[in-house]
Amino acid sequence: MFRFLRDWIDDRTGLGKVIDALLLEPIPGGARWRYVWGSALAIVFGIQILTGVLLMTAYSPSDATAWSSVYFIQYEMDFGWLIRGLHHFGSQTMVVLMGLHMLQVVIAGAHLKPREVNWWLGLGLMGVVLGLSLTGYLLPWDQKGFYATQVATNIVGGLGPIGPWLQKIIVGGSTYGHHTLTRFFALHVAILPGIAILLLIAHLWVFRRHGVTHPRKAEGTGWFWPDQAFRDMVVGLVIFGIMLGLVVYGWGNQVEPTQPGETVASRSTYDRIAHAGLDGRGAHLDAPADPNVPYPARPEWYFLFLFQLLKYFEGDQALIGTVVIPGAVAVILFALPWLGYGKLRPVGHAAAVLFVIALLGGAAYLTAQAWVEDQSPETLEQQPWASLKQLVAAQRYDPDKARAFQNELEHADARAKRAVQLAREGTPAIGSRYLLRHDPLTAGKELFRANCATCHSHDDPDADGSQPKNMNDHPTAPDLTGWGTRDWLRDFLTHADGPRYFSRTHLKSGKMSKWSANAREKAARNPQFAEDLETIATWLATHPRHDPPEEKADDLNAKGYRAFDKHCAECHSYRAESFDELEAPDLAGYGDARWLREMIMAPQHPTKYGKNNQMPGFRDLNSLAASVLEEPFREKMKADLAAAGDDPAKKEFVKKAHQVNTLTDLERELIIRFIRRDGRVVHGGEPIGD
Amino acid sequence: MSHSHGFPAEPAEGTGRRRFLKWLTHGLGAAFAATLGVPALLYLLDPRNRKPPSGDFRPVAKLSELKDGQPVAFTIRESRRDAWTIHPSDIVGRVWLIRHGSDVTAFTVTCPHLGCSINLEGDRFVCPCHNGTFTLDGKRTDPGAGRRNPAPRDMDSLEVRLEPAVDDPKDQVVWVRFQVFYQNQQAKVARS
């Protein structure tokens, strides 16, 4: 049956002859292991095409979606981590194999007459492959690729008078955006691979014309099929195995389970293998690109030597590092075959070998130097890196710079981990970078630091010992770490007069401070009272807003309300119906998002601190609503000022109570969720609320 | 043997070593293809993991907004996840609501033929693509003018639930269980 089908096709297409022509190539001198590098490159290139096409089926090249689509491949799609990981390490394998292939070619003298044209085709292929690496590095649109590629395109911008124009054409605009991605995408998936395939066909065609360059003493004739093909296949498989090993070893971030009750153990075996990205397998993905967040940019390791070369030529000498030296190297490589004409052949051959070895050695030296310069002194103290430092970078090494780089890198890694964790719950439609821009624990924390930690104190949840644990060393308002939780409330009840709360403020000798000092003593000798305090704290930590309980009820709501009624209601109200008599905050919903929202927007409101308030309100004074809503606030301030009479201190107090700072709704919600330890992303278009 | 680069005679078929090498190369190639091919195939089949819309009841309209026997189109809003994107409150579809006294019937606007949106034309529902035509009860009917009705089934009705409105005890809220069905088949089957 198989034979019939084969004959049928062969009879009508002549395919058999083509295959014979491809496979039945005589190899003078016999098949050899040293001939495998070209085939190995072809095999890895094949893997790149296959995995690349697979990635194309799920990749979405736009500023808003690129990062998330790569996240989705890496962490959510079946075996996406494997496909992307192979593609990622495949590109690095290509670069390594190109180095080996080139070395083997010049050692064999295979670049010399009559094979000059094939040497040039090979150089062209090398340029295209490096171009593929450069364009592919940007596509995930993460911080790393975004910033590293900026360096490359800015170098283009410095190329004389046409530089800026050229840069704009390549980047697709003045700054990076949608068209940077679509243009790099087109280059990466269509234009450069197309050129690579054409060059590869020509490369093989010309190679066939001249055959392998065998050692002079070689005897006999081998055949490509199966003698050389077997060797190629074995080496190809070993290389594939190494790539697979790198992918499985894992360079990504682990993701914590997000579903209630979900654990790693509760996942099925298939699930754990198909989604091994969640366990950190596969390639790394940095935080989404954000031009407003700095990043310690470094190119991929095989471009590090170029990066390092630039450091030697700063200022107006930069062109030497970016154009002159790489250009000279390219010209010499191009000219290498011409050094070996006629009787000069042995000399030219030796010179070419020396040049390529020097080139690879120099690149290795610069790469090691770049690596060492970025390592912290602590890392370098571990052997054998200490001697490596002596070897490559003793003079240039700056421990402070290296430490700063490592710190930045650590910070960037923390952001990457957080972004991936948040993406598990879905990305806002406005774009991947808004995962972190609208993350309460990232953006909310910084907004708290800028707007609230000028007076309030709060522990930094991400403090790692290198900075102060608290965000404010000299607070003038209560500490809000854990505000609204049972523990915070219980501590406040008996320490409101203490250093964490009101002793910092104008309320240090107010009614609550006095009550609290008294309660502290009373709780020590009266167990029933101490228990009532516990009940009040537990009840308030549920942020109660329900109706006052019926008389017979005996649950937490009822007990809490009764304890509150007994001990707190003299000053505090619960769901006050009239604002006139209030002298302390209304405690209905105390600690929930709505209470906090009202407090932030209008702390001088009678249901909040009222006439005791000294905190500025934070509202969006530029919003459309403000023009309507600000009027009653102004009227209230006028009335309060009138009531203050002529006493300048009282007038000052009233003015401070009514002070307003501008804060947008989004910023406020981020701060609210940060204070309430609610890590959910605030989505655009979503009704902002609990 | 010579060193010449001339084309030598084809290799003799089937010495033991050569045959073994061929089979080994084929075998290694097959192992290679399987290691790459199986994950690649499963990767391409990944959409089988994507979930259909939730199919929960959604509040759509108030009974007082509907006039007896007069179809009105309403939008359905849901939190929707499209691969990596969350749309917290997205319009996921439209429904025709028709009141009959204190009862309401609901039809999805999607035509059961090939998925165009069905319009109201006078006292009939008509699909603008291929003349699928339905009565106000959603039953298939003759399009007239010698045309054929291509719809394989009647319009897709949706489950409706009426609940008292919180802000107005005399009014009721119409809840609809919004689902998406397969087109172009006689049976009404929700998409999985």
Point out poorly predicted stretches of chain B: 1-7
CA distance, first residue to last residue of chain A: 68 Å
Beta strand % of chain B: 25-35%
- Choose one word for the global shape of chain B: elongated
| Structure annotation, total helices of chain A | 27
Cα-atom Rg of chain A, whole angstroms? 35 Å
What value does the Rg of chain B take, in angstroms?
Answer: 30 Å
| Main beta-sheet strand count, sense and barrel state of chain A | 2 strands, antiparallel
How is the topology of this model organized?
The complex is a heterodimer of chains A (690) and B (192).
Chain A: H1 2-13, H2 15-23, E1 26-28, H3 36-56, H4 66-75, H5 80-108, H6 116-138, H7 143-157, H8 163-171, H9 178-210, E2 221-223, H10 224-249, H11 269-274, H12 304-312, H13 318-335, H14 345-374, H15 377-381, H16 385-392, H17 399-423, E3 427-428, H18 434-437, H19 440-451, H20 486-495, H21 511-525, H22 527-540, H23 556-567, H24 593-601, E4 617-619, H25 624-644, H26 648-657, E5 660-662, H27 665-675
Parallel strand pairs in A: 4-5
Antiparallel strand pairs in A: 1-2
Chain B: H1 16-44, E1 57-62, E2 72-82, E3 85-100, E4 103-108, E5 119-121, E6 124-126, E7 133-134, E8 157-164, E9 172-177
Antiparallel strand pairs in B: 1-9, 2-3, 3-4, 4-8, 5-6, 6-7, 8-9
Features:
heterodimer; A: 690 residues; mainly alpha; two-stranded antiparallel sheet; two-stranded parallel ribbon; 5 strands; elongated; B: 192 residues; alpha+beta; 6-stranded antiparallel sheet; 3-stranded antiparallel sheet; 32% strand; disordered N terminus
